[in-house]
Amino acid sequence: MGMIGYLKRVTEQALSSLIHGGQDLYEYIHGEQGEELDLDKAWQGLHYLLCGDPYGGEGPLFDALMGGKPLNPEEESEIIVRYLTPDEVREVASALDSVGPAELAKGFEPDDMNEAGVYPSPDWNEEGELDYLLGYYEPMREHYRAAAAAGEGMLLYVS
User: Fold this and answer.
1) φ, ψ for residue 34 (rounded to 5)?
2) How far apart (Å, rounded) are the C-alpha atoms in residues 38 and 101?
3) Alpha helices, DSSP H only, in the chain?
4) Beta partners for residue 5, in sequence order
5) At what angle do helices 86-97 and 129-150 cross, to 10 degrees?
6) By CB neighbour count within 10 A (0-12 exposed, 13-18 middle, 19+ buried), where does 92 fall?
7) What confidence tens digit (pLDDT) does each residue in 44-98 have?
8) CA-CA distance, 112 to 124, in Å (whole number)?
9) What does the alpha-carbon distance between residue 89 and residue 39 come to, in Å, rounded to a whole number?
10) Residues 143, 13, 62, 37, Cα dihedral to 10°
11) Contacts for 64 with CB less than 8 Å, ≥ 6 apart
C-alpha cells in the first residue's frame, strides 16, 4: 500500500472553518468537497527534485509538497494535514510555473536520492523512476494553477 500523497483544494471559507474548528477535518478530507489530486507515492521524490533535499528546502517550492501549517497541531493522528492559504497557493503556482519538466529532471540524482532514502524507490537507478515522478509533475502544477485562479487554499497530506 504505502504512503500516498494528496493535494486537496479548499475554498477560503472552508479553510477558515477548518482552522477554527467549525468543520470536521476528516469529514472534509474524505468528503466530496474540494478537488483532490492523488500523487501516489511520488510526493517525496517530487519534493527532492524541486528542492534537492528529501525534507528541506526554501520558499514556495518547499511549500508545494512539504510546507504549510498544521491543521491538526498535535500531529499525532494517522494523517498529518497541513494547509496553504490562497496567497501561498498563488506563490507556489507561480514558482512551479517557473520550473518546467526538463529543468525539474536536472535535479534527478539517483545515487544521492538512494543515499538520502528518498521515498518510495529502493533504487532510483532503476529504469523508469524519473518518468514515474515526471508523470505526476504536470498534474501537480495544473492543480496549483487551478487553485490559484480560483483563489483557493490547499490541504497537503499523506495517508
Assistant:
1) 75, 135
2) 19
3) 12-19, 25-30, 43-51, 59-63, 86-97, 101-105, 110-116, 129-150
4) 158
5) 130
6) buried
7) 999 999 999 999 999 999 999 999 999 876 655 567 899 999 999 999 999 999 9
8) 9
9) 17
10) -30
11) 46, 47, 50, 92, 95, 96, 140, 144
Contact 81, 53 (CB under 8 A): no
**Per-residue cell: 21:** 474548528
Task: Look up residue 100 and give its amino acid.
Answer: G
Task: Report residue 114 as a C-alpha cell.
Answer: 538512494
Return the exposure string of 45-78: e unless at least 16 CB atoms fall within 10 Å of the residue's CB, then b: bbbbbbbeebeebeebbbbbbbbbeebeeeeeee
Q: Which residues of 97-134 are buried (b: 16+ CB within 10 A; e: fewer)?
A: eebeeeebeebbeeeebeebebbbbeebeeeebbebbb
Identity of the residue numbered 87: D
Can you give the pTM of this predicted structure? 0.95
- Residues 1-37 have pLDDT tens digits of 689 999 999 999 999 999 998 998 889 998 999 999 9
